[in-house]
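Lecture 7 notes: from sequence to structure.
We start with the chain below.
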Amino acid sequence: MIRPSLTILILSAVCLRTGTAVAHPHVWVTMMSELIYSADGSVSGVRHNWTFDDVFSVFATQGLESKKRGVFTREELAPLAEVNVTSLKEYAFFTFANADGKKLLLSDPVDYYLDYDPKRTVLTLHFTLPFKTPVKAKQLNVDIYDPTYFVDFAFGEKNPIALVGAPAACKFSITRPQDATAQAQRLPETFFNSLDAPSGWGTQFANKVSVKCP
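Predicted structure tokens for the same chain:
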């Protein structure tokens, strides 16, 4: 079965939620991310764990065959996981990083898969974004956001960030954006329809991670 693109899934989930299109955002993601370090102290990539809201998750799994009703294995969700990560490439995986002021380029995601929690009826997408060139950095910054604010990202309350294999002296801090939902809903849908990935309008709602290493 050919699954629709992530964009179509999102748009359909909007209709399922409200019956008509409403102002942004349309999908909510709670995230936990890990910055991955190599033995030599260089940072090599970001591992994301993104949990989608229940309405989107329920819609995305409609029509998927499973051995047990209401329960989906990682293998059964594999085609949907591939569609998700492929669709995200257009938006740079909503991940923007720089090391000591220089932009870091991302390779295609690896080790991606979806989990489904039948009690909460939510999907969680796991994937790793390697940096094209691992780098040792005194200052590493990673911003996570949707430039068009179609998707609202928020760090989870518990352990939203982890440094995996980082030198002991490295320390991180996070900056959470102010809730922008009310502001966005005051804007007409035509405003958002004019936005595209390079617009960068959603930068003001970025979730920021900063890592300092001596």
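Points to note: The radius of gyration is 18 Å. Residues 1-5, 7-22 have pLDDT under 50 and may be disordered.
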